[in-house]
Structures are given as C-alpha cells and as structure tokens.
Prior knowledge:
The protein has 2 domains: 5-132, F0F1 ATP synthase delta/epsilon subunit, N-terminal (ATP Synthase, domain 1), CATH 2.60.15; 155-257, Alpha-Beta Complex (Aspartate Aminotransferase, domain 1). Helix 4 crosses helix 5 and helix 5 runs parallel beside helix 8. Strands 2-1-4-5 form a 4-stranded antiparallel β-sheet. By secondary structure, it is of the alpha+beta class. Helix content is 32%, strand content 25%. The chain is built from 8 helices and 12 strands.
Amino acid sequence: xxxxxxxxxxxxxxxxxxxxxxxxxxxxxxxxxxxxxxxxxxxxxxxxxxxxxxxxxxxxxxxxxxxxxxxxxxxxxxxxxxxxxxxxxxxxxxxxxxxxxxxxxxxxxxxxxxxxxxxxxxxxxxxxxxxxxxxxxxxxxxxxxxxxxxxxxxxxxxxxxxxxxxxxxxxxxxxxxxxxxxxxxxxxxxxxxxxxxxxxxxxxxxxxxxxxxxxxxxxxxxxxxxxxxxxxxxxxxxxxxxxxxxxxxxxxxxxxxxx
Length: 259
C-alpha cells in the first residue's frame, strides 16, 4: 500500500514497535506477525508478514521483495520499486524495453502460468477462513491475518512437540531455539545426532513414510561455522507447516524415539 498513514505497528525481531510521522531513521529485521496500520482517515487494517526488514527513513520505501511461495503460492519472486528509484537502476533486460517496468528486470519474460496460478492463493486463504471462522471480517487483509495467526498457533504447538521429542534423543543437537514461541521461531527444525549420520537418520524416518531430508540446504558456510563436521551430510531438516496434522506429528515423534 502507498496511502498516507498515521502510524504503523511492526513485529520487530526484538519486539513490537510503532512508527509515527517523522520517526528517527532505523532498520530492523521482522519476525512473523501482523502489521497494524492506522490510516490518515482513522480506519485501520492488519496485514500478516512472515518476515523481512523494516526500513524507516525520510524518503520512504525504495524496494520491496517477496517470495510468493512463503505464503503458499507459486515459486515466484515479486519486486516492487519506487518509480524514481527504478529509473536510476541499470536494466537487466533488453535496452529497447528500458521504459517498460515489467520487462526491465525480467529479460526472459514473465512466467504466465505461475503468475496466473497466484489467483488460487486468495481462494485458498478465503476457503480456510470460511472453514474456521463464522464471523464476517471486512477486507481480505484482515481475513488473511486471522488465517495466518491460526497457522502460526498450530505450527507452534506441533513444533514444540517435535522439539521435546528431539531433546529426548541422547546426543541430539537442535540448531537454533529449542522452544517454539509464536512469532519468534519458524516450524522448520534442523537437528544432528551424535554417533549417527544425518543421512542414516533420514533413511530410518523415510522408511516410516516420514518425509524429511538432510544436507546443507544452501547454508554451507553456516554449517561450517556451527562446527558441523560433515556439512555435506549436514543436518536433518524437519519442515512442518500448517497442514501437517497432529496425527502426522505423532508418527514423527514415534519415529524420532526410535533413532
């Protein structure tokens, strides 16, 4: 959105904060949560974000980049740029498309099928909202915020069940926080186990029809810095999302207990 606002409440990684007019410039990382926006006309809205950066400065937002698969859409990258800034950036496409924004930074052309499929994202969120909530909530952003709060609550509950099961494994190591709190830890859990390769642990779980993977997950330097002795074998990654059921997590917990 680009409309004038009175204030924006932001879920910062170190705590929630509110930005008012003429706020001092600063940059903060965001955690999953809800942006609270009070518009100049007094109306308000809530927008769910899964992370990113809040850049507060006098000139306003320059660029916003987002991966639509983070909200369960197709695997696309979306970039918004302030027109005055876009005009100063070297184009990545053909020179004769210099003044056409949607070609300027996409030399291969748009992926029409994936873009068209994004329409299903709103349909999905609306269907989930209709299934779980009876009351009418005005505005799609408000309904989406309720849905993603529901996702976060479920993921947090199930993630803690998994984390407790991992802690019970002798020699286990959890990469990152060992407790899930809504808005401060994603339900993507990486672990290692002393005396067992990550590949062997994955094989045992896959034999129980539990879909997990191992490797460096494009974080090779991070694993090396964490002292992972065989970064190619890497960590066991358990990727939990909102549509994983409590029963599925129970099967995973049982499988972890057998490692």
